[in-house]
Amino acid sequence: MYNMPNIDPVAFQIGSFAVHWYGLMYLISFILASVIMRYRVKKFPQYKTWTKEQIDDLLFYCILGIVLGGRIGYVLFYQWTYYSENLIEIFKVWRGGMSFHGGLMGVLLACFIFAYRTKRTFFNVTDFIVPVIPIGLFFGRLGNFINGELWGRITTSNWGVIFPSAKDGLPRHPSQLYEMGLEGLVLFIILWFYLTKPRISGTASGMFLFFYGLFRFIIEFYREPDAFLGLQMLDFTMGQWLCIPMIIAGCAILFLGEIKELWKKRFAFEKK
């Protein structure tokens, strides 16, 4: 059992400028993403057409997609009733309230715009960026844990954590750490090794959608549902319902990729 200390949400302060833990996690994520994307361009021939300027531009597009999409997604998916009556609150992002699924849609839109402007295919862009998304998930969940937010359901396990913000003094699953491990570290390893060889366009994106959706769906059984939403139909959380389309889409993309690969091999054989 671990008693979580009440950690100051401000990591450090320079004069009147305060850097919050969550913002620091975002900064670390974007720096590491940039470094790893540059490494992949140098290491793997299939990415040699990418320039440093394009990497910087894509990251900028995605940052906007994450912030805007994450906020809009939270408003629409989780607290529309409240925000529809308090529209000015939508813009107060410093008070918290971001949705991964909304941020993902923002990133997909950013990738679509970037692909159009650089004359690349959509999957060429998404396949390039998906391996670094788990980095952001890893540090984002670490930020959640430090802030003592988005904690898990009550547990009797020895590794339960008592979060001060829960205000009930009961041990809970450290679901933020579960997400760090599966959605962050494990998913990164899967995608990294999968992309050490050239793959059919879109399959890396399909792998990401499938495994993220699967991991998040499982972890939601240990994560405390949002108090203002509770459990939804079939006793699933809102997060689980939002993961189901991801799992289906990931399977569909991977299946179509396999069909495409088989067709190419058959065509090549008949040509011989």
Descriptive account of the structure:
The chain is mainly alpha-helical and 272 residues long. 62% of the residues lie in helices and 5% in strands. It has one domain (2-201). Helix 2 runs antiparallel to helix 4 (100-118) and helix 6 packs antiparallel against helix 7. The radius of gyration is 20 Å and the shape is globular. The protein starts with a strand and ends with a helix. Strands 1-4 form a two-stranded parallel ribbon. Strands 2-3 form a two-stranded antiparallel sheet. The protein is built from 9 helices and 4 strands. The model has no long low-confidence stretch (mean pLDDT 88).
| Overall pLDDT confidence | 88
In terms of per-residue confidence, which ranges show pLDDT below 50 for 5 or more consecutive residues? none
Strand order of the largest sheet: 1-4
Q: Could you give the order of the helices and strands?
A: EEEHHHHHHEHHH
Q: What count of helical segments does DSSP give?
A: 9
How helix-rich are the residues, as a percent range? 55-70%
Question: Kindly, what is the distance between the CA atoms of the first and last residues, rounded to a whole number of angstroms?
Answer: 66 Å
| SSE-based structural type | mainly alpha
